[in-house]
């Protein structure tokens, strides 16, 4: 059964603009305004959303991703009826709880306790129903000490704790969650994600906006990618996230520069990276590998003339764009020679050290000792790392433990190596 229907919805804002083309013009306008005492700003229509349509089935968890200003929060605000569409129609069947802006929905002068009851009554709950859930909410928010403090004294993290705890315990039909969770500390964020999974399994319908792609991928059954107020892609999370990444590729100056250098002259290009793929231990192509499992990565390339002593490199970037791992043939010192034509170079890793998450992979081919790459594909491929061997911290490192026999144990305390 459809619980949300968004039918050809557009949201238009009227924004002010000076409209001047140069500083000189702007100064002239400012002078004119000073004397005319009339702020002759030009009004302009701006579409935060344009002709957006989608439906959500009861029990689905849908994610909205996209760059800043693409319209994600606008969609949630429309579903929460905080704002209304300029064109089109929105139907949400059932009650909606939302966590969209820090502190929204709370009365600043009231205490945490009073706000919980207020929110409950807005959601149509009886006082006795709220009372039955009160302890669980306060427990979850970990705000026992401050529950009788007016919420205007709360920090942003405390607001979000209370907001999420209330929204996630009053059993709305639809739960809307925007990026605000990011304000909470790491342990609270992971607790929220666990709770979202629980609610999801209990059949709640959830709409989730985030820039944390691993969370989106883990929590959502379907994802929408928005760009400039238009739905660019919709579907299976891994697919849509890759689509979003592809649109981001040349945002990075360094990458762009390197890529431009690499493809400076298409006809004169001496080598091209055709693709990167990942294989499991039996050589089957995969797009996900668990931490601690063996990984084989293959770079397929084509060279138009032979290259003496080339270097291949692979870069693994996390979603927040940190370089987590880098492999290069330069370190192994092996000299190879590439002959004209297509070829594959392969790297074998006994135990993958990356922690679970989604990684964007860059591949590079250059002559040893040269700055200018023959080809460079920045963040163009994807690898999902699944939970495998337990990782606490940034990465797993293959290792062995051993208890030394008594014969190898120092007899005296002083012999121990103290730092
Ligand atoms: N009240 C408003 N008046 C004018 N423009 C607005 C208003 N609210 C939002 N916008 C504009 O609508 C666009 C979409 O905003 P929205 O908040 O939905 O983006 P977003 O995808 O949530 O971005 P972010 O990732 O930064 O949270 C932005 O360009 C924003 O400036
Ligand atoms: Mg937003």
Task: Produce the secondary structure layout.
Elements: E1 2-17, H1 23-36, E2 42-57, E3 61-65, H2 72-79, E4 87-92, E5 96-99, H3 112-122, H4 127-141, H5 156-167, E6 174-177, H6 186-201, E7 205-209, H7 213-219, E8 222-227, E9 230-235, H8 237-248, H9 253-262, E10 271-279, E11 285-286, E12 288-290, E13 295-303, E14 307-308, E15 310-317, E16 323-328, H10 329-332, E17 337-338, E18 341-349, E19 357-367, E20 375-386
Parallel strand pairs: 3-7, 3-8, 5-6, 6-7, 12-20
Antiparallel strand pairs: 1-2, 1-4, 8-9, 10-11, 10-13, 13-18, 14-17, 15-16, 15-19, 19-20
Helix pairs in contact: 3-4, 4-5
Bound molecules: adenosine-5'-triphosphate (ATP) and magnesium ion.
User: Percent of residues in helical segments?
Assistant: 25-40%
- List SSEs in N-to-C order: EHEEHEEHHHEHEHEEHHEEEEEEEHEEEE
Q: Report the CATH architecture of the largest domain.
A: 3-Layer(aba) Sandwich
Helix/strand structural class: alpha/beta
Strand content: 25-35%
Secondary structure tally: strands: 20
Number of domains: 2
Mean pLDDT, to the nearest integer, reads: 85
- Strand arrangement, major sheet: 5-6-7-3-8-9
The CATH superfamily of the largest domain turns out to be P-loop containing nucleotide triphosphate hydrolases
Q: Measured on Cα atoms, how large is the radius of gyration?
A: 28 Å
Would you identify the regions where 5 or more consecutive residues have pLDDT less than 50? 250-254
Distance N terminus to C terminus? Answer: 65 Å
Number of helices: 10
Q: Please describe the biggest sheet, giving its number of strands, its sense, and whether it closes into a barrel.
A: 6 strands, mixed
């Amino acid at each position: 059964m459809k619980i949300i229907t968004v039918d050809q919805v557009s949201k238009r804002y009227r924004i002010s603009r000076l409209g001047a083309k140069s500083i000189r013009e702007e100064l002239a306008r400012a002078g004119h305004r000073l004397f005319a005492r009339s702020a002759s700003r030009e009004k302009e229509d701006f579409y935060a959303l344009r002709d957006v349509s989608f439906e959500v089935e009861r029990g689905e968890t849908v994610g909205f991703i996209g760059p800043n200003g693409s319209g994600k929060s606008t969609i949630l605000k429309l579903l929460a009826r905080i704002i209304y569409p300029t064109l089109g129609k929105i139907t949400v069947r059932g009650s909606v709880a939302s966590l969209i802006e820090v502190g929204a929905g709370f009365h600043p002068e009231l205490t945490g306790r009073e706000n919980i009851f207020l929110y409950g009554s807005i959601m149509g709950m009886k006082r006795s129903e709220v009372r039955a859930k009160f302890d669980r909410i306060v427990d979850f928010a970990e705000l026992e000490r401050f529950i009788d403090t007016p919420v205007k004294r709360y920090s942003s993290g405390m607001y979000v704790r209370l907001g999420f705890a209330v929204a996630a315990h009053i059993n709305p039909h639809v739960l809307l969650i925007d990026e605000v969770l990011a304000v909470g500390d790491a342990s609270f964020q992971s607790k929220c994600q666990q709770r979202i999974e629980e609610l999801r399994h209990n059949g709640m319908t959830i709409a989730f906006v985030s820039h944390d792609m691993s969370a989106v991928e883990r929590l959502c059954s379907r994802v929408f990618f928005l760009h400039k107020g238009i739905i660019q892609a919709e579907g299976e999370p891994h697919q849509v996230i890759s689509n979003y990444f592809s649109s981001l590729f040349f945002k990075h100056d360094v990458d762009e520069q390197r890529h431009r250098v690499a493809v400076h002259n298409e006809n004169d290009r001496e080598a091209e990276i055709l693709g990167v793929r990942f294989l499991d231990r039996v050589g089957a192509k995969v797009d996900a590998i668990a931490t601690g499992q063996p990984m084989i990565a293959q770079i397929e390339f084509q060279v138009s003339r032979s290259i003496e002593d080339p270097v291949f490199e692979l870069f693994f970037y996390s979603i927040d764009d940190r370089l987590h791992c880098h492999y290069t043939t330069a370190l192994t010192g092996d000299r190879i020679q590439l002959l004209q034509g297509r070829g594959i170079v392969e790297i074998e890793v006994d135990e993958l050290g990356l922690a679970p998450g989604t990684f964007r992979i860059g591949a590079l081919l250059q002559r040893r000792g040269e700055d200018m790459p023959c080809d460079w594909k920045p963040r163009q491929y994807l690898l999902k790392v699944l939970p495998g061997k337990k990782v606490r911290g940034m990465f797993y490192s293959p290792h062995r433990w051993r208890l030394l026999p008594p014969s190898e144990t120092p007899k005296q305390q002083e012999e121990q190596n103290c730092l």
